[in-house]
Design a protein that fits this description.
binds 7-O-phosphono-alpha-L-galacto-hept-2-ulopyranose, 30% helix, 8-stranded mixed sheet, 6-stranded mixed sheet, alpha+beta
């Protein structure tokens, strides 16, 4: 190896350690799958994630967490996590994206953490919703959230060398999306309606090997920023427009310095080329298998994405159940 390539060695992959926290959150949530109590599932995941994060050598600040401190005792926005040594980072956590899915025993729930250099994640916490568009790299310079959906679908199909009828668009299944659902179908493409969890939906749209080509619609703005960390690592496209519900929310956004009626590009959602995204499957999904327990072992599947190197790792772990009693 030449000296210069040694100097360019990409260094520590923080994601490799953060993944233990999403594994722990997913494992601790498992007893609550299908038990109808989403708060209990979330509480177990939050507690486990926080304990594991405390062991990781980094100085993290939760930019996107469980909410304001007075309503979220753990992983609240602004909380410092990690042992304080090592890189200063912003982090976005969602111990379970899909608490209702988990409580109902449905598929596609994940546990996730995203990280980037300190001060680079957009703090969009004052606006609950964001309108989003996510595609793989083929969509860059080709689709735009300001354009009509049919036009975007045709352009993306051309860029991907696919027929329009083979394009699949993930959308949260909500009454507010009936208009765009109709537009997708009128364009000749197909919808993939998701009950919850538009982080996984967005990542599937950005991954080159998935069956979803595009993810659109209004979901959580925190989820948008977390998704952006993953999409940057995958080299895909993400755009977001904040979607305040009330005049009060509009004012809060303005007071927080956020831009309304404005398209946030990936680099504004996360202003860093050093992003990490890790997730572990809670219940089975397109992206990850959920937690399984068999014969004294707990099996987890996780994904670790890193923008600096573009690596995508899948981690299959076997945990001795007796250590988790
Ligand atoms: C969104 C989405 C999330 O919940 O926040 C959604 O981003 C809430 O949407 O991934 P509604 O208010 O319409 O229910 C998730 O799907 C899961 O937390």
């Amino acid at each position: 190896m030449s000296e210069s390539s040694m100097l360019q060695h990409p260094g520590r992959n923080l994601g490799m350690e953060l993944v233990r926290a999403t594994e722990a959150a997913a494992i601790r949530a498992t007893p609550w799958i299908g038990k109808g109590d989403k708060n209990a599932a979330d509480g177990a995941a939050v507690d486990a994630m926080r304990r594991f994060l405390a062991t990781v050598s980094f100085d993290g600040v939760v930019v996107i967490g469980e909410g304001e401190k007075d309503e979220a005792p753990m992983l609240f926005n602004g909380e410092h996590v990690g042992n304080g040594l090592g890189p200063a980072c912003d982090i976005a956590v969602d111990p379970i994206d899909g608490t209702s899915l988990t409580a109902a025993g449905r598929s596609h729930a994940i546990s996730m953490i995203a990280a980037s250099d300190r001060g680079t994640m957009l703090d969009a916490s004052s606006v609950f919703y964001m309108d989003k568009l996510v595609t793989s790299h083929e969509g860059i310079g080709v689709v735009d959230i300001r354009k009509p959906i049919a036009e975007n679908i045709r352009a993306l199909a051309k860029a991907k060398g696919k027929k329009v009828e083979d394009i699949r668009v993930a959308i949260l299944d909500r009454p507010r999306h009936q208009g765009i659902i109709d537009e997708v179908r009128a364009a000749g493409a197909g919808t993939r309606l998701i009950l919850d969890g538009d982080v996984a939906g967005g990542i599937n749209a950005a991954r080159p090997d998935s069956r979803i080509d595009m993810c659109i619609g209004i979901g959580g703005s925190p989820e948008g920023v977390g998704t952006a960390c993953a999409v940057k690592a995958l080299g895909g496209l993400i755009q977001g427009i904040l979607y305040p519900q009330t005049d009060e929310e509009r004012q809060k956004a303005i007071d927080a310095g956020l831009k309304l009626d404005y398209v946030y590009e990936a680099d504004e959602l996360v202003a860093s080329d050093n992003t990490y995204f890790v997730a572990t499957g809670v219940t089975d999904g397109d992206m990850l298998r959920g937690v399984r327990r068999e014969n004294g072992w707990i099996f987890t599947e996780s994904i670790i994405l890193r923008s600096k190197t573009g690596t995508v790792r899948r981690i299959l772990a076997e945990h001795a159940e007796e250590k988790w009693l």
